[in-house]
Amino acid sequence: MKKVRTFFGYTTIVLLIPLLAVLLFFTYKEWSQAETAQAEWNTKVTQKEIKLPLTSTITADDEMIITELSKSQNRIYLDEQEIPEFLKQIFVTIEDQHFYEHKGIDLSGISRAILTNAKAGSSSQGGSTITQQLARNLFLNHEKTYNRKLSELLYSYKLENRFSKKQILELYINAIYFQNGAYGIEAASMLYFNKHTAGLSKAEMAFLAGIPNNPAMYNPFTHYASVKKRQERILQILADQKLLSAEEFRNIKAELIVLNPRHRVDLYPDYSAFVEAEFKELVASSEGYMTKLQTANPDNKERLAQKLNDRVRELLDSGIVIHTALDTDIQDSAGKSIRISLPERDIESAAVVIEHHTHELVSLIGGKYYKKYSFNRSFQSYRQPGSAIKPLLVYGPYLDTADHSLSEKISAGPFCQNGYCPQNYGNALYGLVTIEEAFSHSYNTPALRLFNDTGIHKSFSYLQAFQFKKLVKEDYSLPAAIGGFTYGVSPLELTNAYSSFNNGNYQPARAIRTVTDRKGKILYKWKEKPVKVWNADTVKEMRLLLYKTVLDGTGKKAFLPSTYIGGKTGTTNNYKDLWFVGLTDKYTAGVWVGKDIPSSIEYKKDQAPHLLIWKNIMGSHSH
């Protein structure tokens, strides 16, 4: 009786198949006439292309890839001609033998699936064509329900009418999931064998081709034997279909498959984290978001900010290449120097190196052992600059506003105004000193007198060019002359500002040179122009003051032979921060040393780690 029921069940199902086909046809006609469904399709698919999320990359100045960015899916797209013919044959043979004959729907495949599901009492068998699987990956989910299946059939029909078989197969091989975060054959090839798809052997192609059928079950890292067995089944099918000779079958099957895992590239995380932040700024500047955000009301600002975030993600999902100025040699030496000079667990550091002729950021260290997307001290930390602000806020403006001589005398005696009575380091008292002496030995009271003479607002006007983000109106006071700010400055900001002592011009240093699409077309580049800050005489005098400081002043431990060298130290109250920012003939570099929660590191002052770090970084890169 059971056999009779089964027979009639199968017969009924077979008779219903033509009815199902007719139903699908009329359903499609109704669906295609629905404007909302048509509009939805048109938003998802354009005539030109379907955009799969791709992996973007960040490169150093020598074009070495330092970071792979996958915001949605780790995928490296291959065009149809880049996909080996043997690999195409495998997928068509094992997934959809009538691929080149049907229009996206294989009724015989659906029949087999219905029969299998009826026998099993479930909907476990899919019977999907390659086009249906592509539709599922692009537009739908992987639930095994008949509602989803109907949508899948309709989308498949649309895909077949919009794209050629070559295009559909290309999309499919790039879209499918190969486990462990790899989407598409190229990402899989790089992940499991550390080589491009073009370099795979036929045995390796068949091995990888088995994974998408059930990525969790056929995970090469955890179920190698299962993947190998599936590979052998695939090869047997190919042999049965006369796509492999008996000898080829034996040789390919016998080839030893050796995994050579390649971890995704994520080098120099502090620099690349900054690059991502700068990329968002570049997009905002290039596409008008920055101006709109500055003038928008709170509600619109939130909406615009989200729109900008979406735009950045869209670009990072398009497989762009962000070309940067990173000098990996300098970055390596900077990180190493910091770790050697600061063995203490709780003392941190940040370093910034700018090639001041090109205004390029060639190195950026965000911390001693920086972890990706953690607090980046080089551009996210704002600290009191101490005397390191004097060249920018006191001496530069004083020399720039009138005809002064470096041998001009000024009192280094006690200074007191409106109850504010700061002292020189160590409470030392001096008489009249030259501007050169006051600068190189970092006396406080002469700086306050010069600041007063120039005028607070006039002096601060020079800082406007440098766009210090945390500068507030409360900072416009006498304590600022010796580094007393409400919030302070970041190492990147301060180093950027010092680069103006190269030739008198200021232009923010940028890590990004260009952003290109995966075909090499330039999409974005900075178009900023330098702003004049100091006149030529001021630059000449300031460079001399900076040189004297390193020669025999507070920065002498940073001295090294160079065509030009100069710099300025900065120490805040109770030795909570140690700064040194200096220039060589080619670079402007800044180093900050301190604790994340500010507290005294006076016990380190005699070692002068900030000076030694700077000297080590610049030592092998100065002329």
Structure described in brief:
This is Penicillin-binding protein 1A. The chain is α+β, with helices and mostly antiparallel strands and 623 residues long.
Q: Which SSEs are present, and which pair or pack?
A:
Blueprint: H1 2-33, H2 35-44, E1 56-59, E2 65-69, E3 74-75, H3 85-95, H4 107-120, H5 130-139, H6 146-162, H7 165-175, E4 182-183, H8 185-193, H9 202-209, H10 224-240, H11 246-254, H12 269-286, H13 289-295, H14 298-316, E5 321-324, H15 328-341, E6 348-355, E7 360-365, H16 390-401, E8 409-411, E9 432-434, H17 435-440, H18 444-454, H19 456-461, H20 491-498, E10 505-506, E11 512-516, E12 522-524, E13 531-532, H21 536-552, E14 565-571, E15 577-584, E16 587-594, H22 609-619
Parallel strand pairs: 1-5, 3-4
Antiparallel strand pairs: 1-2, 5-11, 6-7, 6-16, 8-9, 10-13, 11-12, 14-15, 15-16
Helix pairs in contact: 1-4, 3-9, 5-6, 5-7, 9-10, 10-11, 12-14, 13-14, 15-22, 16-18, 16-21
